Amino acid sequence: MKKIGGLKGLILLLGPGFITAATVLGPGSITVSSKSGAVLGYSILWTLVVAALFMSTYTVIAGKIGCLNKDSLLTIVRQQYGGWLALLIGICVFLITAGFQTGNNIGVGLVFDTVFGGGIGLWACIMLVIALIFIWTSSNFYDLLEKIMMLMVILMILAFLGNLFAIKIDFADMASGFVPSMPTVWGLVIAISATSFSIAGAAGQSYMVQGKGWGRNDLGKSNASAVIGIIVLCALAIIIVITSAAVLLPKGIKVESAVDMAVQLEPLLGSMAKWLFLVGLFAASFSSFIANAVLGGMMLSDGFGWGKSLNDRSVKVLSSLLLVGSTLLAVVLNTNPIELIVMAQATTILGAPLIAIVLLLLGNNKKVLGNNTNGIVVNVLAVAATLWLIYLSINQFQTFLK
Question: pTM for this structure?
């Protein structure tokens, strides 16, 4: 087989990991990161490091399950633990992605409403139609999805990276932000953890590597793809927190609109900051818009035992239902869109512990992985990640009861 190296080889390697990252990297991530930096400064940076470590761990586990088995993730769950658990996980993932998708709809609406007017609901509906056409007319859905996701993630990186060189950073204060501390606004910790450590997105890596056609011999590529994709995701979130802490916090901007978030790019771009930020926000919205909906539809379909491929009709039907439902929710809810995005991201933490526990069990199941079960380090990190998800879920549930 001809070996492919250089930039082309790197791009081929990163495909599944970038789709997983793009699934998580949506307007919710940008909004929550911007608001966190504007309200809490650098003090929340440690949560993103923890999220990157935990997300990478579970994405590697899921990718390993996908590479070493011909059956899909939830088919394996059905075989090992029963159909009821496979369906329950499918429902949990569907609901988690629905929470993300509501934020995606609002994010898309915010961009176009800011530029053209007309209201968030109008533009969310227009994007819904575009997404449905995209899903139902693609004959090779994985390849098309991979190309678009990578392009959108690259646009996001370019939109924010350059700004780091134009802002004044308090490096001592920033360094202290990487040390765990108790924040004054715990809801933002839950929201930023939910956006950066999505166990549903991690589980999706199993399907992405199978969609790529990777097998046992590609296990190393799967691991590298997962780790690099998640590092890119969390590094971008860290950059946004740093820039908002350095620019928005001193100005007293609490982030109530897309224009407020765009102010963080003004040191580099001046009056053009608004437009570049909106391009970046649209890129994040569109990339997550498609990938997130398909993940929810795919895993619910697999949970029912109907279909597991990105091109299966049942996956497309359920993905379409998720898109329609989340769009209606975004249109009907009449509240501050920024606050709604934060709330939608936080709700995705509920149900996550169950998915984490099942992935952890599969990662140590010799019937599933043979001699490639988790090592001690991976298990320690996975257990810590699961406990973190349980803790966040309990806090989020208590918030709902208040």
Answer: 0.82
